[in-house]
């Protein structure tokens, strides 16, 4: 796929089926993250690629929020973690989450290119995640990425809204609301 196709194809699908995740796939994903830019080239991103039991089962059974029950069909869960002092802090501007977010985007797009679904989630218990995969207290769990193969039949735990999102991409705000050229316009930015 070219980049336009990858961007158009990427979706946060919730109906997943099993796919074998090899170390080669993990290396492709990690390499995509590795080449992303970061402040002073600090590379504050850290990932645990959880693909085997008991760790994967424990994450599914103990760490997910109720609304993320669909993620029990994940073939891999990527735990994204970092901490503030791994990256630039310039007065009140704190950069680690920005840089880790870019690395996560690279992983999500590369996974799409490999015909996988890579769905980021914030609905989980960070403390449980830390305990299960052995991440020290001082780190922040920024997000999880649920990885699997897209299944065309809908996952039976999905809510009505979640089923709608499987069918059509959730609505985006129009370009005019966030794309400014030369000047940010008062009548839009004040709303
Ligand atoms: C930081 C972040 C947190 C998210 N948390 C959840 C979540 O907990 N559960 C979920 O089902 N989807 C979650 N999503 C997915 C979004 O709902 C989804 O990306 C959005 O609705 C747009 O749909 P699309 O990605 O298919 O275009 C999250 C996405 C991001 C970036």
Poorly predicted residue ranges? none
| Cα shape | globular
Class per helix and strand makeup: alpha+beta
Strand content: 15-25%
**How many domains, in number, for the residues?**
1
User: What ligand molecules are bound, each kind once?
Assistant: flavin mononucleotide
| SSE run | HEHEHEEEHEHEHHH
Calculate the terminal CA-CA distance, rounded to whole Å. Answer: 38 Å
CATH superfamily: NADH Oxidase
Give me the CATH fold name.
Answer: NADH Oxidase
Q: Using only CA atoms, what is the Rg? A: 18 Å
- Tell me how many strands there are: 7
- Tell me the helix content: 25-40%
Average of the residue pLDDT scores? 97
Quickly count the helices: 8
- CATH class membership: Alpha Beta
The appropriate CATH architecture is 3-Layer(aba) Sandwich
Major sheet summary line: 5 strands, antiparallel
What do you see in this structure?
The structure is a single chain. Helix content is 37%, strand content 18%. The protein has 191 residues and is α+β, with helices and mostly antiparallel strands. The strands form 2 sheets. Strands 1, 2, 3, 6 and 7 form a 5-stranded antiparallel β-sheet that branches. Strands 4-5 form a two-stranded antiparallel sheet. Bound molecules: flavin mononucleotide. Flavin mononucleotide binds next to strand 6.
Feature tags:
8 helices; binds flavin mononucleotide; NADH Oxidase; five-stranded antiparallel sheet; 7 strands; alpha+beta; 191 residues; globular; 37% helix; two-stranded antiparallel sheet
